[in-house]
Amino acid sequence: MNRRKFLSYVGCGCGSLILPSCTTAPITDRKQLKIVSEARLNAQAAQIYEKVKEKEKMSDDTKTLNEIKEIGKKMEDSISEYFDREGLDDPTKNFDWEYILIDKKKVRNAWCMPGGKIAVYTGILDATKNTNGLAAVMGHEIAHAVAKHSVERASRGTLLNVGTKIIDIASGGVLSDINRTTGQNTVGLLAQLGILNPFNRKQESEADYLGMIFSSLSGYDIRETVKIWERMKELNKGKEPPEFMSTHPSSDNRIRVLNEKMNEVILDYPPIKLT
Questions:
Q1: Residue 271: which residues within 8 A CB-CB, separation 6 or more?
Q2: Looking at residue 158, what is its pLDDT?
Q3: CA 179/CA 215 separation, integer angstroms
């Protein structure tokens, strides 16, 4: 059974058990399924964020942290202003923005939790190189939160958990036997085997696109976005998994799509002049 049929069967099987909320992602209008409370997820994320701050070593590089906060503030204001001018509901209206810089030079990463809780690792500064590069990374991570990708993923996981229980009953407990044998739950196995990955890659590509838009609206040079992924490709040389087994698009595909969309973003989403 191919993955699309599997997921459609799961969805049909859960139809009588879950009442989904069908919405669309901001700007891209991609259809989304949301059955998990955003407010609850934001509250959980805020608690986890506090634990991260307690556990991880914070960088004493106040100059870079202030730069991160300045970029973040510009994006906060530009995103809200854009949706206000377009007469659209601001997806960040309930965000409680916060920024930290974690001192881990071997970790080239950044993330944004639901509700606007952002962390940048010092290791990624080797790839960002400059303010525009840092803005590109932050725009991408902020895009995940703006597009409610965590809500979408949590909803997907809930749907699959219910669906696999239905399939387990229908199959006479075959999935339960697999779980006992492998020591993993079925949703974890599906993710590991790549059944959920295309969905995650779709989100990553969407975050690339929205991230460029948010960077452009905030007045940053989005041409640096491609340069970052070229540098990341070089830094990760020989370490990337095959795209079909990865939750992220390959660097080559990422660079190609970013180049294709760049002129469109520059023309359609010029910097916003804040009053």
A1: 78, 216, 217, 218, 219
A2: 72
A3: 44
Average pLDDT over every residue of 37-47: 91
Question: Quick check: 114 and 71 in contact, CB under 8 A?
Answer: no
Helices vs. strands in the chain: H and E counts, helices first: 11, 5
Q: What DSSP line would sit under 199-224, residue for residue?
A: HHHHHHHHHHHHHHHHHHHTT--THH
- Asked if residues 207 and 255 have their Cβ atoms less than 8 Å apart, the reply is no
Residue 81 falls in the annotated catalytic set: no
Alpha-carbon span 161 to 163, nearest angstrom: 5
DSSP 229: H
pLDDT at 3 over 90: no
Block residue for tokens 């810089």: 101
Q: Residues 6 or more apart from 116 whose CB is under 8 A from it?
A: 76, 92, 95, 96, 97, 98, 142, 145
- Among candidates 11, 10, 98, which has minimal Cα distance to 48? 98
Q: Are strands 31-34 and 21-24 parallel, antiparallel or unpaired?
A: antiparallel
Mean pLDDT score, 40-55: 92
- 99 forms bridges with which residues in the sheet? 118
d(CA 16, CA 74): 44
The predicted model scores a pTM of 0.79
Percent of the chain with pLDDT over 90: 57
Confidence of residue 217 (pLDDT cuts 50, 70, 90): very high
pLDDT tens digit sequence for 195-207: 344 447 889 999 9
What average pLDDT does this structure show over 222-246?
76
Of 67, 81, 141, 224, which residue is the catalytic one?
Answer: 141
223 contacts 173 by C-beta, under 8 angstroms: no
- CA 81 centroid distance within chain: 22
Give the residue among 88, 73, 213, 47 at the shortest CA–CA distance from 139. Answer: 213
